[in-house]
Specification:
Length: about 270
C-alpha cells in the first residue's frame, strides 16, 4: 500500500520521485543526442559514399545516375533529372522510378516542365513544399556548381509517399551540392582537355610547317639549280647530259605535285 507509517517516508518518496524525474530527463537527453549522432554519422556516410561514387563517374549520364540512386536511397521515392538541351532549354526528364513504386505511367503534366524551366532560370526551389508553384507534383531543385546550373533534380511527391523532414531536406541539398561539384569538375576537365588538344594541334601544325618547308626547299633548290645550269651553260650541253637534267627536273616537279596533293588531302 501507499500508507506511510513513518514521518520520514514522504521525504524519501519525494527524493526518489525527484531522482527518477532527473534520471528520466537525462535518459531522454542522451537518447536525443544518440539519435542526432546517429543521423550525423549516417549523413557523413552517405555523403562520403556519394562523393566517392561521383569521383569515379566518367560521364554526365553516370553522374546523373549516381545522384539519383543516392537520393532514392535517402528518400525512397522516384527521382527525375532535367538536363539542358542544345536549344538552350531543358530536355525531357530522365526518370528513375522505384521498383513497384507508384508513379504516373504517362509521365508528368506539361506544366511540370515549366516548373523545371523556372528553377533552371532562377536557381530557386519550386514545386510542392515551397511557396512557388506549390501545386506541382514534384519538388524541383537546381544542381549547380560555383558558376552555373548544370541540371534540375525533381523529387516526386505523391499521395502514396510521406513528407520530408528538415534533416532529409538538408541531406538532399548536400547530395545535390556534391553532384554540382562533380558536374563542375567534369566541365573543367573537358575545358582543360580542349586546351591541351588545341595546344597539341598547334605543336603538330608548327612541326608540319617546318617539315613541309624543308621538303619543299630541297626539290625547288634542285629544280632551280638544274634550270640555271641549262640556261647559263657557255656551250650547248651534250644530249645525254641535257636529258639527265630534264629527267631530274621532271622528277622533282612530280615529287612536288604529289606533296601538294597530300597536303590537300590532309587539309580535307
Amino acid at each position: 500500500t501507499l500508507q506511510a507509517y513513518d514521518p520520514g517516508y514522504p521525504v524519501t518518496f519525494a527524493v526518489m520521485f525527484l531522482s527518477s524525474g532527473l534520471t528520466a530527463s537525462l535518459v531522454i537527453r542522451i537518447k536525443r543526442q544518440s539519435q542526432l549522432a546517429a543521423r550525423k554519422a549516417y549523413r557523413t556516410e552517405v555523403l562520403l559514399e556519394t562523393s566517392r561514387k561521383l569521383q569515379n563517374a566518367e560521364s554526365v549520364s553516370r553522374i546523373v545516375e549516381v545522384t539519383a540512386r543516392q537520393v532514392q536511397k535517402l528518400l525512397e521515392r522516384p527521382i527525375l533529372f532535367y538536363l539542358p538541351a542544345e536549344n538552350g532549354h531543358l530536355g525531357k526528364p530522365v526518370c528513375f522510378p522505384l521498383p513497384g513504386a507508384v508513379f504516373p505511367a504517362d509521365g508528368l503534366a506539361e506544366d511540370e516542365h515549366g516548373a523545371a524551366e523556372r528553377v533552371w532560370r532562377n536557381t530557386k526551389h519550386a514545386g510542392t513544399t515551397t511557396n512557388t508553384l506549390p501545386g506541382a507534383s514534384c519538388l524541383y531543385m537546381a544542381v549547380r556548381g560555383q558558376s552555373k546550373v548544370f541540371a534540375v533534380a525533381a523529387v516526386y511527391f505523391g499521395k502514396a509517399y510521406r513528407g520530408m523532414d528538415a534533416f532529409e531536406k538538408n541531406l538532399l541539398l548536400a547530395v545535390l551540392s556534391e553532384s554540382g561539384l562533380a558536374f563542375e569538375s567534369r566541365s573543367l576537365l573537358e575545358t582543360q582537355r580542349a586546351i591541351e588538344l588545341k595546344a597539341q594541334q598547334e605543336r603538330l601544325r608548327a612541326d608540319l610547317l617546318r617539315a613541309i618547308s624543308h621538303d619543299l626547299r630541297t626539290p625547288l633548290t634542285s629544280i632551280s639549280g638544274h634550270a640555271a645550269l641549262l640556261l647559263r651553260a657557255p656551250e650547248p650541253l651534250e644530249e645525254p647530259k641535257r636529258a639527265a637534267l630534264y629527267r631530274a627536273i621532271s622528277h622533282d616537279a612530280q615529287w612536288l605535285i604529289h606533296l601538294v596533293e597530300h597536303l590537300l588531302s590532309i587539309t580535307r
